[in-house]
Amino acid sequence: MTAPNLGRRDDGEIIACPDGPFLVRGPVEILLPDGTPLPRTRRTVALCRCGLSTIKPYCDGTHKASGFRTT
Ligand code: FES
Predict the structure, then answer these.
(1) CATH number for the domain that contains residue 56
(2) pTM to 2 decimal places
(3) Dist. CA 9 → ligand 1 center (Å)
């Protein structure tokens, strides 16, 4: 199954992984709720959307064990 592409720009993209995180690729600025830019050291980062990660906002893989499902 191909992950749906939620948005794409010339310089980055966000991919919603089925039953998993959002993958953010490219030079997309990610802001925390207070507006602070999230420091990035990698071109691709996985952001938790199951709410169970212990390293939020990043995905730590917990979604697999929890049985998280997207529709
Ligand atoms: S989406 Fe992976 S831990 Fe939440």
Answers:
(1) 3.40.5
(2) 0.81
(3) 24
